[in-house]
């Protein structure tokens, strides 16, 4: 199996080439770092060449480069030496801290510091002269200085990477929040649009079908009157929604959201559209006002229930009951369930989804479906909207 060596970085190649060229120039000029040593002549070129080769792997194999480079520098002490060899060793120490493992980055400064102190004490004890301290200082400049510089650079890079990662995570979370906000707003707009317009369009569809299927001038006239009334009301509701969505729609004041005080008008409109419906509002008229989100959700649930009854219910009485419990508002709507005898409008099921979503957004419960009763089979809608007593009357 062939050994594949990592390809040297082009910066490392440049450092190795320039350092070797400088070292050869110094050797050719006869500028030696420590003349008069045991090995003279060309022996200084061997550590110089080894350190230049190690510069090629300073980034890809920093631990190997530091180990071999230390041996090469020790060997260089027996030759006349070269200043370029010393400079390359300091760069290798620096690279070992910056590009090495976290454990090596912690260990190398400590080791070089201890070696510097040991050399200073050892030579001071050997020579018995203060000038021996200069040898320790030189050892510190060659080894401990580059190591501590590498620690500072590595910490700076890690801090920059951490800041970049936090910025990316913050941007990702912001984008997720934006998408969720847009999705929630689109869902809210869809519910509002469906609840506001479906009732009027269903009445228009049913009465236009009746007008077309019955050859009776009076029936057609009555149907056209209902169609016109629902068209005008539907248009007003659409304008209100546009006023909410657009600040330049021309509306100087925001339109008020419907409340439970408008249930009487809503039921009267359903009767005009041909629905036999009664309203039993068991709430205390003198009681505190409910929070606006609860009132809006309750109004829309009743409105959509009446719309579904108009489209799908059999002939018979539709009952709407509201009751105020200590911590919740309950809504019950019952309508005859079976095959309607008159014309009907198609449904998509979005109304039931919207009612369930409105209830769940407030932390309530929603149920709907057919059930048996003494008067026959009925379709029941039941919703419970939680109310915090501390929030009641906040609008007063």
Task: Walk me through the structure.
This protein is of the alpha+beta class and 396 residues long. The chain has 2 domains: 10-170, no CATH class; 259-396, Heat Shock Protein 90 (2-Layer Sandwich). The protein has 10 helices and 5 strands. It has helices at 10-28, 45-55, 62-76, 83-99, 102-127, 133-213, 217-245, 263-272, 292-312, 350-361, and strands at 277-281, 318-324, 328-336, 365-373, 376-386. A 5-stranded mixed beta sheet has the order 1-2-3-5-4. The longest helix has 81 residues, at 133-213. It starts with 9 loop residues before the first helix and ends in a 10-residue tail after the last strand. The relative contact order is 0.06.
- Poorly predicted regions: 249-254, 392-396
Largest sheet: 5 strands, mixed
Query: Could you tell me the strand content as a percent range?
Result: 5-15%
Alpha-beta classification: alpha+beta
Strand order of the largest sheet: 1-2-3-5-4
| Mean pLDDT reading | 80
First-last Cα distance = 85 Å
User: Can you write the helix and strand succession as a string?
Assistant: HHHHHHHHEHEEHEE
Tally of structural domains: 2
Shape label = rod-shaped
- Please estimate the helix content: 55-70%
Helix tally?
10
The count of strands amounts to: 5
Task: Return Rg in Å.
Answer: 43 Å
């Amino acid at each position: 199996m062939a050994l594949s060596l990592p390809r040297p970085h082009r910066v490392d190649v440049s450092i190795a080439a320039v350092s070797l060229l400088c070292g050869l120039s110094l050797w050719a000029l006869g500028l030696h770092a420590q003349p008069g040593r045991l090995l003279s002549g060309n022996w200084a070129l061997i550590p110089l060449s080894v350190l230049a080769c190690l510069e090629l792997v300073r980034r890809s194999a920093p631990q190997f480069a530091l180990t071999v480079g230390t041996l090469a520098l020790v060997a260089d002490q027996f030759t006349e030496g070269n200043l370029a060899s010393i400079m390359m060793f300091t760069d290798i120490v620096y690279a070992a801290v910056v590009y090495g493992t976290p454990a090596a980055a912690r260990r190398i400064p400590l080791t070089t510091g201890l070696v510097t102190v040991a050399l200073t004490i050892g030579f001071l004890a050997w020579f018995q002269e203060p000038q021996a301290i200069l040898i320790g200082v030189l050892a510190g400049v060659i080894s401990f200085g580059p190591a501590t510089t590498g620690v500072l650079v590595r910490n700076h890079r890690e801090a920059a990477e951490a800041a970049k990662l936090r910025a990316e995570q913050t941007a990702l979370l912001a984008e997720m929040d934006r998408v969720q906000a847009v999705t929630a707003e689109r869902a809210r707009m869809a519910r509002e649009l469906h609840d506001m317009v479906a009732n009027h369009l269903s009445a228009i569809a049913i009465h236009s079908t009746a007008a077309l299927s019955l050859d009776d001038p009076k029936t057609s006239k009555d149907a056209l009157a209902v169609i016109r009334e629902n068209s005008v009301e539907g248009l007003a509701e659409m304008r209100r929604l546009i006023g909410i969505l657009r600040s330049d729609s021309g509306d100087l004041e925001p339109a008020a959201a419907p409340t439970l005080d408008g249930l009487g008008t809503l039921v009267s409109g359903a009767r005009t559209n041909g629905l036999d419906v009664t309203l039993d509002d068991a709430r205390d008229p003198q009681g505190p006002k409910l929070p606006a989100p609860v009132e809006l959700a309750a109004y829309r649930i009743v409105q959509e229930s009446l719309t579904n009854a108009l489209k799908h219910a059999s002939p018979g009485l539709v009952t709407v009951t509201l009751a105020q419990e200590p911590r919740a508002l309950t809504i019950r709507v019952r309508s005859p369930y079976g095959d309607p005898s008159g014309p009907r409008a198609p449904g998509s099921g979005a109304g039931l989804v919207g009612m369930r979503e409105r209830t769940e957004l407030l932390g309530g419960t929603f149920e709907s479906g057919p059930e048996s009763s003494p008067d026959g089979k009925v379709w029941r809608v039941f919703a419970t909207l939680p109310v915090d007593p501390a929030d009641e009357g906040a609008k007063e």
